[in-house]
Design brief:
Elements (H helix, E strand, L loop, with lengths): L4 H14 L3 H10 L13 H8 L1 H20 L1 H4 L6 H20 L12 H11 L1 H18 L2 H19 L5 H17 L1 H8 L19 H16 L1
Length: 234
């Protein structure tokens, strides 16, 4: 990738887009609650579903996906005819990585963010929507069968490079490397979930019945509900 002032500014802007702490800001604005202090302590869509419910969870999921997608699409602002296509594709990947780093380490809220799965989904949709849709299909199948969001995310992340290299036979070296990095990153960020899966302590969601996932700590669940009810009355 050519190192130019415009490209550097674009990378910084991509990071700032990724840094938007959707769940934290919405939780504080609507309920006066920092999501990171409840549930799993994660600032992602899954914990938002768990603590604040379906409507807030869907909103956070959509916005976090859009963060990754928009960051990659900054490429079109920088595109000029006649440029090397491989270099341009590499720029797309770097814009996506900056957005992902922003989500995991958001500058706006003390660098404590989420695991980046939703933002990563937006990134891969912008880079290779066919491979992304295949991974989403696997995610949904595993989620419906097992009820584990974490397991679904891990398997979808591992499956993504397989789709990229084996099914679609992608030839771009950076895309292959990036897809492998996704698998490694998803496994690393879900280590605690993997431990809970093996110890059978991981929480589930039930998509078919549409029930809100219950917190493991019942006292905390009551506390959060009380705070939300008080805020809604105000």
């Amino acid at each position: 990738m050519l190192i130019t002032p415009i490209n550097i500014l674009a990378l910084v802007f991509a990071y700032l887009i990724g840094s938007i702490p959707t769940s934290v800001w919405l939780g504080k604005y609507y309920y006066g609650i920092d999501l990171r202090e409840h549930g799993s302590g994660n600032a992602g869509a899954t914990n938002t579903f768990r603590v604040f419910g379906k409507k807030m969870g869907i909103a956070v999921l959509i916005i976090d996906v859009l963060k990754g997608w928009i960051a990659v699409k900054l490429f079109y602002v920088l595109y000029e005819s006649g440029q090397n296509l491989e270099e341009l594709f590499n720029l797309k990947i770097r814009l996506g990585i900056c957005a992902l780093l922003g989500h995991v380490f958001p500058i706006y809220v003390g660098f404590k963010g989420g695991k980046g799965v939703a933002t990563l989904l937006g990134i891969v949709l912008a880079l290779n929507h066919q491979a992304a849709l295949a991974s989403i299909a696997l995610f949904l199948i595993v989620l419906i069968i097992t009820g584990y969001v974490s397991l679904s995310s891990i398997l979808a992340g591992i499956f993504f490079p397989v789709v990229v290299m084996v099914i679609f036979k992608t030839s771009q070296p950076d895309m292959v490397i990036f897809s492998l990095m996704i698998s490694v990153a998803v496994i690393i960020t879900h280590q605690k979930n993997i431990e809970r899966l093996f110890s059978k302590k991981e929480s589930r969601v039930n998509l078919l019945k549409g029930k809100k996932n219950k917190l493991d700590d019942k006292e905390e669940e009551v506390e959060v509900k009380n705070k939300i009810e008080i805020r809604q009355k105000d």
